[in-house]
Design goal:
By secondary structure, the protein is mainly alpha-helical. The chain has twelve helices and no strands.
Length: 304
């Protein structure tokens, strides 16, 4: 007789395979995160190329009338810069202070107007949907291909008929808008402002213009700052149209400095001293607004 073993059989549980310990991966350093010697060397060459003309102008502007013809020019500035600068400032034929005020006033007004209208138009082209919008933007961009010189004669005839020749308004009104500014702000706002923010503002009951003020303007500040700086510099250095439409009694600064070369004998030490004086406001502008300029370039280079 066989005996059946009725004792409970305990099944041996299969041992679980040993779990591997997860290794914490350390973040790898991104190659090229730190610029190499080639980048610093290239920036040094660019910086040197930008500084040398100013330093050469300082060497000539701090000398006398014979300095520019000196073949053994010293690399140490002379001591006549303030004398030459005083000759520019006190020359009654140049009207330096009038030209300085006209340049500051016209350049600031043109820059503010271009930023305002370009931001408005850029917001419309980037975030509003209306019939013919893409084709109208193409037309605005195509106007940049038209040379400025083609409009000089019609503009002069127009301002001559309304009596604006010789007035500072003749150089402000044609530059109140900019096709490049419209294109620049359109491209920036198209990437910088999500459509969800606009929808949220509309759900809250904001009008189109209120949405532009509360959503578009804060997002457009870096690009608008850079556009304003570039527009100010362009208007400041503009010589062609102001030279045609303005006179000697009411010039801009580039036109006033050109009068230093109207004599039979041109003292280039005085001319270059005046050129250096005209760059001082621009240098101050870039010193105080350089942070906004760099911020606009960096934010404009990042999508979204």
């Amino acid at each position: 007789m066989s005996v059946i073993d009725t004792s409970p059989v305990t099944a041996a549980a299969d041992p679980k395979p040993p779990q591997r310990q997860s290794r914490v991966r350390r973040p790898r350093a991104v190659r090229g995160s730190r610029p190499g010697w080639f980048v610093y060397a290239s920036l040094g060459v660019v910086l040197l190329a930008a500084i040398v003309p100013y330093y050469w102008a300082l060497l000539i502007g701090s000398g006398d009338s014979s300095t520019i013809r000196n073949t053994e020019l010293s690399w140490i500035p002379g001591g006549n810069f303030f004398t030459n600068a005083a000759a520019v400032l006190n020359n009654p034929a140049v009207n330096f202070w009038t030209g300085l005020w006209n340049s500051i006033f016209s350049s600031a007004l043109i820059a503010a107007s271009v930023v305002f209208f370009s931001t408005l138009a850029g917001w419309a082209f980037a975030k509003l949907r209306f019939r013919g919008g893409p084709w109208l933007l193409v037309f605005v961009v195509a106007t940049m291909a038209v040379p400025t010189q083609l409009g000089v004669v019609p503009l002069y005839i127009l301002f001559s008929e309304i009596g604006w020749t010789g007035q500072i308004g003749a150089i402000i009104v044609p530059a109140l808008t900019s096709a490049f500014g419209v294109f620049w702000m359109t491209q920036y706002l198209r990437q910088a402002v999500p459509d969800e923010l606009i929808e949220a503002a509309r759900v809250d009951g904001a009008s189109s213009f209120r949405t532009f003020l509360t959503v578009g303007v804060p997002a457009a500040r870096p690009a608008a700052a850079m556009l304003g700086l570039f527009t100010f510099v362009t208007a400041w250095n503009n010589f062609f149209w102001p030279f045609i439409v303005l006179d000697r009694q009411n010039p801009t600064l580039p036109v006033a400095l050109s009068l230093l070369q109207s004599n039979y004998f041109v003292d280039y030490s005085v001319v270059l001293a005046g050129v250096l004086l005209s760059t001082v406001p621009l240098l101050l502008l870039f010193v105080f607004a350089g942070k906004q300029l760099v911020s606009g370039i960096m934010q404009g280079a990042v999508k979204g």
